[in-house]
Amino acid sequence: MNSKVLFVLTLICYVASFGNAAVTMPNVFSDHMVLQQGKPISVWGWAEPYESVTVDFKGITKKTTAGSEGRWDVELPAFEASSESAQLRIEATNTVVISDILVGEIWICSGQSNMEWNLNSAETGAKAVAAANFPQIRLLKINSRPCAWAVRDIDNKWLVCSPQTVGDFTAIGYFFGKHLHEELSVPVGLIQAAWGGTRIEPWIPREGFEQVDALVNIVRHIDQAHKNYRENLPVKMLEIEKWINEARKALKIGKTIPLQPEWPRHSLYSEGHPTEPTCLYNSRIFPIVPLTHRGAIWYQGESNIGEGMLYYDKMKALIGGWRAVFGQSDLSFYYVQLAPYRHYGSDALPAIWEAQTAALGIPNTGMVVINDIGNIEDIHPRNKRDVGDRLALWALAKNYGRGNLVYSGPLYRSMAVKGDKIEITFDHVGPGLTTRDGKTPDWFEIAGSDKLFRPAQVRIVSDKVEVWSDEVSAPVAVRFAWDNIAQPNLMNKAGLPASAFRTDKW
Description:
The chain is built from ten helices and 23 strands. It has a domain at 411-502. The protein is of the alpha/beta class. Strand 17 and strand 18 form a beta hairpin.
């Protein structure tokens, strides 16, 4: 071999080898990030297989060795919150330095369009953007496309919150984080992973579906889709190889190039609009696993309307799945009950409200009710500030020791038949029950054994509600706000609205 050629090849191999050996970090670890306070911190990246890696943060040093595929992981101890800028230093054959890191609270903000709705487009959004000089709030907006396979990294990096960076960020997430930051006086990191029009299934990892017996068919669907895709690849690759040869010949002699065979589409991947199980988990959540964080806020369900209590099973899969993959069994999960909206099928919203309320039985969850601030003609209510603030109340009460807060509106607890009346008892009454307009509570219905519900008369008695009708002498069931357009006036004196409920199972 020519000595010059040999030298060039040797140089290329050396450079390639050096490039492969370089330690790299996922983009969730980038300048301006926030690390979670009060919990051991997972840090990971990639290097040459079996390469030694040293990680240093605030004088704590950890050493590890990359595995056979080049991934390495370390766990740093828990740190106290700090607004003092710090560096994360990673050393191998090269050195990576991540700067301007704060320690505080990290929350994931996920769901569909109402979570994705940006601050620029929200009610009072222009004023909020102009005032958003909060350098201790940090923003990471993940925009990755859906994928049938787990994606290693995201393209996006952290930004410092300012009027120049916050306008396109989730409005609910921003108001939630701002509320926490101002109450706790600690840095807050917010990760937006939302996509308008998406169902819940694309956000759920396979590990979540596996936990719920009612969803076993989805697990089979995922596995069969992967199997079919792999089995089809060899045939398609032969077709494409044949086409390449034919295309070369046609190009060489000036003939028309034949049409290229279509690459096999994975049935779990929809290019235009992600709908299939795991597709958005794979591209927007998996790349940040196992990031240590406090919890998630969630606003989704419009695209699952019509499923009723099946949505409860899917919420169990989502919450359980995220807790499993992040290795944080106590991960907090606070979500928004859908707003009233006229243009659904009959009783479609009450059925999913019931499923969302049932999800409160999952530990470390919380539900925000917004039937007082919706718009029955608009699936995207513009008041995002109150939604974010109400989510923050749950976090402050449950995660940050503010036990004196009233953090939820009244939730149905029990009923008792008292002669020709039914007495309804609530949880989260707070300082007492009232109505926001000073009028008698509305949207109550009552029925006897004939199962015919009639408009009810209602009276607040201390922390309970009495319901009756002159047309129902022997009542057996009550429904409240059981209608797509119900915007009831019942609330507690802390100003938080009561959630829809029914006492029957008809």
